[in-house]
Amino acid sequence: MSKYDKDNGEKKLKKIVNVGWSIGNFCNAKCNHCYSWKSRKESKDMLTDTEIDIILEKLIAYGVETVNFGGNEPIFTHGADVSKTKLPYIVEKLYSHNIACGITTNGYTALYLYDNHPNIFHMINDWDFSLDAPCKEDHDLNRNASGAFDSVLRGLELCNQFNRPKSIVIAGMRSNLNVDILSKFLDIAKAYETELRINLLKPIEKHHYEMLPDARQVYNAFQYLFEETELVTLSEPILACQTGIEISGCPCGEYSFRIRSKQNSKVSITPCVYLELDGGDVLTQSIEEIVASKAFVEFCGRKNSIPKECRDLNCEYLESCRGGCTARSFLVNGNYESRDIYCPVADFEKDEKKLEGYSLKKTNDGLVRVHENYLCSWIGKPVKGRSN
What we know:
Mean pLDDT: 90
Oligomer: single chain
Radius of gyration: 20 Å
Distance between the termini: 46 Å
Number of helices: 16
Shape: globular
């Protein structure tokens, strides 16, 4: 099945508006939960100036609205030699065409741009700083990078100094999705007046399964967060469907895709950052061809048809959840016909599992956020005055 919207009785392809782009293959950290190191380490390919322009021209012509840089530390577009970075050129080109740019960083990119390209620093629409733990020792250990925690705090301070939008982004893992840890994250978010974003860990590697939180932990964590924060946006289907947020399954492949780093002279596009699905080469194919490819059609077909396991349950959230996160389900179960491991009607005690009694509304502040409807995510803002 393909992905269509109805428009005056006619079928119309949905258009990708949010793009993620892994520009390079080097990172100055070695995170234990990293989802992209395996694909990056195999490649030494770097984009030429001509290839960068080809990609930029296609994104601009296609009409994307946001581009988020991540997957590696974004400033390292051309290996470990940061002096060769092409990131300032890319950001400036997109900015000149009113395309909002976001950067997910361990702090280094923000500090480098501020010191060396301050005009580019101010062009970034969203600064997203990755934290794995709310304390220096644990965060630096997980990142295998001394000073990583301090770099995040310095980046947040810079954003506050110049009134730049920012958030703290957390990979939701067994080690950090509990009330005690989350309360400390909220303390940091309050201190720096920033939003929190959580993407639940996806098990890309075998060792990730030991880091994966179980369903009870996930729901207990978000019940706490819903009580302590104001909702900004929510595109994680297994949560949104229970809280009154209007949603139609996973946004990946329909509203967003990821441009992968160059490998073997090719720059492929995948419908989801967590899956190595090759929709086509953006250097030689049009974006229209790629989003109509077999990889995209099959990926999106899962939520459009709804997995058989979900249909057989006659679930009350069938139309809104539509099987939950496609990537998580595929990575854990190995197929597109299985339900999400965090299924909202799985066999748990009701008071431990389901998010009863919540009727949430998104913040309507008019701000553009590159991670809205981009991945299966939650973004919230701590509410001042509430105790942690």
